[in-house]
Amino acid sequence: MAIKKSEIYSQLWSSCDEFRGGMDPSQYKDYILSILFVKYISDKYGKQKDIAITIPKGGSFDDMIALKGKADIGDKMNKIIAKLAEENDLTGIIDEADFDDSDKLGSGKEKVDKLTNLISIFQNKLLDFSKNRADGDDLLGDAYEFLMRKFATASGKDKGQFYTPSEVSTIIAKVIGAGNLERKDQSVYDPTAGSGSLLLKVAHETPKGITIYGQENDVATKAMAMMNMWIHNNVDADIRQGNTIANPLFKENSALKTFDLVVSNPPFSFKKWTNGIVDPNHDEFGRFDGYGIPPMKNGDYAFLLHVLKSLKSTGKGAIILPHGVLFRGNIESKIRKNIINRGYIHGIIGLPPNLFYGTGIPASIIVIDKENAQSRKGIFMVDASDGFVKDGSKNKLQAKDIRKIVDVFTKQLEIPKFSRLIPFSEISDEKNDYNLNITRYIDSQKKEDIQDIEGHLKGGIPKKDIDDLDKYWQVYPNIRKLIFSPNREGYENLKIKKSEINSTIFDHSEFKKFIEITKKSFDSWKTNNLSLFTEMKIGLKPKEIILNISEDMLEKFSKISLVDKYDVYQELMTYWEETMQDDAYLVSMNGWNIAIYENKNKKDKVIGWDSELIPKNIVIEKYFVKEKNQIEELNSKLDNITQQIQTIVEDNEGEEDIFFDVKIDEKINKTEILKRIKEIKGESEFAEEFKVLSEYQKLSEKEKEVKKQIKEAETQLDKNLLKKYQQLKESEIKEIVIQDKWLFSINDLINDVIEQISHNLTGRIRELAERYDATLPKLSNEVNKLTTKVDQHLERMGFKC
């Protein structure tokens, strides 16, 4: 069975089951990552010679396999890892976890079973990393990133800070212009490196690579970062362990080393930033000179000023900090003013709350650009606080949110309620006084849907509510005239029945023209990318595929009124992530091979077959519609018979009813029914019972026969289906996958977006019509009439109101 990206993820995460309940995720991650690293190194370099990485005798994953079931498995695993670490200068990096720790892993057989099962999971053929990369696509690197997110989520508050969400890291890498660096000797530095994910996102963005530097205070997290670097093929990365503020380890002579890019996600509002500093008022590296000394109990500006000092004069960077740095007063206000006046802040991106793993508070990305500081006229702000989806207990940026933020920031696009360039004159005026709180400059509040009192009193839909739908009327000017007519000044009437709203809009030529435009856009995208799909082969680069087709999708839908191109983009990206990505990796590994495999149950018994690339239902719809319809008709017939049987039983299953005597253990026994029918046959006093039981028996025989027919039909269809799969030519496989699976599904998803746009309009019109349909006087009059009617009824009954 071919490897699928999603199955790699699932298999790796299932390895954690061996530890859940016995220790905290922040602890068991060290075990999983250590054995993952050993497996990766063994697979990738075990059979290669004359390379920098050495797999010593007794220091490979194969040596771990030989330990399965042995009493000293934990101690021997430690020794294997120690040998591998010592041979490759990885001591203190891959040997942090103690596989012989009885307090964490249990003792005796419990420990042996746990570690044996863990080795077995990594022994799975799915986790063969000898061919880690699909010609540029980093399967294992992406899987490691997946584990980082899962560990951070599971570790909870204060223990998941080692990981910066990849969505945020992607935004940072793009807005600081990492893609513009063209030399490997150019540098990126993260003073709070964590697991290294932010550094790696920057490195991934550079076309020819970059030299990586980082410092991390926590020993175990620094080890995690180094493993991350190796797994992502950045073995030359220089990650050091130590307190960045008290003891920065990257220096040139007595000054801080400077870098082309600097990125950072420091601990928010760190209260102990002065630990290890002899005198914060006299920083030996001059980081606070000309700005001010950060508050002793809040390190946000200490980290920001360290980032500034670590940048070259042409450098660019970004730091993630809580919103408080934008508006807090006292000394922080002074520091903020001094930074702003130097022109170093290129922009600020306000993020949604609850994105990060150490805190739920909202944060912002402060983008820094020293190179263009002198010519800067203002600060570009983006309020992206509303763009997210729920992802378990956290919030998550979607692909469309990331793309919109990056597009808007890099192109400096001003969008109402989302982004704006704030001139320095406005920031520094008396009203704002260098306060950078985003809400001062961008009003992102959604317009309130206000009830109109006069509309309720006198009737009529407020014209301002209809005007608010102007984006629709720009496309459907004549539809508005068909639906609404003047009432009095400021109000209009619904000209048609509420039941006619949908048909009036959907049957109109303007609406049909809009739909035709969207269809042409999709068809144009399909035509543009068809050759890209058909030319896919072994060694293709899946990430290049999605980059090309998503860019083209954005372009094709960028100029269609009413359609948000980012919504369409999201549908494509979601389908890629859930389905198409795995398909692309299968093609990259095996070509257009449908890869039929056997389905087995837990007892390893074959229970059927399936295909990795082509779901059965698609082939059935394409080649076996007649057979499918016949089976559906039989199932419908079966449902009808079953319903008749159920009705007979329900009508006759009481304690003294017909089925009482033919039950065994509260269940109707068919043998007893046959026996009872013979007993009462011809007996007039049991005529009704005989009739019911005979009908039940007759229907049961029909049910049995139809079930047999269904099974035979399904078995025959499955045989024909397998035969068809085995006969499929490559050209047919391509057509099924590309046309019937990918393009059909993507078109369906985009149609859902277009349909939702239309339903938003019809829904709003119906809502307004119903809101102002009955005036208050009319309702009061109806209430009075009903009250009078009730009073009259009461009076006739002898009650005086």
Number of strands: 20
CATH superfamily descriptor of the domain at 156-446 = Vaccinia Virus protein VP39
**Which regions are unreliable across 5 or more consecutive residues at pLDDT < 50?**
132-137
How would you sum up the major sheet?
9 strands, mixed
Describe this structure in words.
Helix 21 packs antiparallel against helix 28 and helix 22 runs antiparallel to helix 23. The longest helix is centred in the C-terminal third of the chain and has 42 residues. Among the domains are: 140 residues, Ferritin, CATH 1.20.1260; 291 residues, Rossmann fold (3-Layer(aba) Sandwich); 110 residues. About 1% of the residues have low confidence. The chain is built from 29 helices and 20 strands. The protein has a nine-stranded mixed beta sheet with strand order 3-2-1-6-7-9-8-10-13, with helices on both faces. Strands 14-16-15 form a three-stranded antiparallel beta sheet. A two-stranded antiparallel ribbon has the order 4-5. The chain has 801 residues and is of the alpha/beta class.
Short description:
The chain is of the alpha/beta class and 801 residues long. Among the domains are: 1-140, N6 adenine-specific DNA methyltransferase, N-terminal domain (Ferritin), CATH 1.20.1260; 156-446, Rossmann fold; 618-727. The chain is 51% helix and 11% strand.
Jot down its keywords.
20 strands, 51% helix, alpha/beta, Ferritin, single chain, 29 helices
Topology (elements, then pairings):
Blueprint: H1 5-14, H2 25-45, H3 61-65, H4 73-87, H5 102-105, H6 109-123, H7 139-155, H8 166-175, E1 187-190, H9 197-205, E2 211-216, H10 219-231, E3 238-241, E4 251-252, E5 255-256, E6 259-264, H11 300-309, E7 311-322, H12 324-327, H13 331-341, E8 345-350, E9 363-369, E10 378-383, E11 389-391, E12 394-396, H14 399-410, E13 419-423, H15 424-427, H16 453-458, E14 461-462, H17 463-467, H18 470-473, H19 477-483, E15 484-488, E16 491-494, H20 501-506, H21 509-534, H22 542-556, H23 565-590, E17 596-600, E18 606-611, H24 616-623, H25 625-651, E19 663-664, E20 667-668, H26 670-680, H27 687-727, H28 730-771, H29 776-796
Parallel strand pairs: 1-2, 1-6, 2-3, 6-7, 8-10
Antiparallel strand pairs: 4-5, 7-9, 8-9, 10-13, 11-12, 14-16, 15-16, 17-18, 19-20
